[in-house]
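Entry type: protein chain
Record version: 2
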Amino acid sequence: MLESRTGRVVLVTGGAGYIGSHVVRSLRRRGDRVVVVDDLSTGFAGRVPHVPFVHLDLAARGARERLVSTMVEQGVTGVLHFAALKSVSDSVATPTRYFDRNVGGLTNVLSAMEAASVDNLVFSSSAAVYGESAEHAVSEAAPCRPLNPYGQSKLVGEWMAAAAAAASGPSSVSLRYFNVAGADDALLADRSVGNLVPIVVDAVRHDRPVRLLGTDWDTPDGTCVRDYVHVLDLAAAHVAALDHLERSDRGSWVVNVGTGAGSSVLEVVRAVEAVSGLRARLESAPRRAGDPALVVADPALAGELLGWRAVCSLDDIVRSAWQTVDAPGALVA
């Protein structure tokens, strides 16, 4: 068994996924010991070699008991919870499935943490909890009005984490992150082609049209505007959140993770064109149900509370995404 140089043993649910695997690498680089739990429905075990791995569906019967035994046997001191379904369109089509997996999985994680006396949880939330905000830069004080079941399931998760902390359960930081993209290398790259940056990269690389889901939004160029944060910046935010929990009194916090700057779909397309030297073919399509026009973070609290800020630009994100797609070492399904 590998020893932890820091004394921390972190259980990462969904650790074989795109975001989770980047966080696993960041934790290991600083000397933490990591245990990964993943059902491999969208993740790849090859992303997280040389760590204890538990193949488990967190919403399945018996998951709580297996989590408790894993936490006790491995000496877990904190949990980073990523495992969840995350497609907006799928959540609109199959809402009960999203609540079963996202809410049910977190229920088992929290219950297991209480049984195993694990005190600190970093919960993977989402800017989807805000829905359509009237604020130009959305702060954590903005009303939460999620427009789809995915966002609703994340908001319920925040409520659950806060309620557990108030009842002397685990303390928690719920990180409401905005649009995550980019990669550290080809092994950890986003292979889902379900988020905008990999969608555009894939389309441009293979000379397929980029579908613009609505060109009449109330934004400067008519396409949706989002705040894009590099996955390496996001990984650093999780490490900072865990550190905050370890040095703080019991409690729960919600914190935005974003850059504070918005980019439209067309601006992302132009950035991919600039990096690749290729031209994108554009195709107009209807709006997607459940989408807001503009969502950009106010990241001030992350700086004040966690000492964190994003350092990577949209160009950094796009360049890393372009360089890692189809590169040697990339995983395929």
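Comment: The first helix runs from residue 18 to 29.
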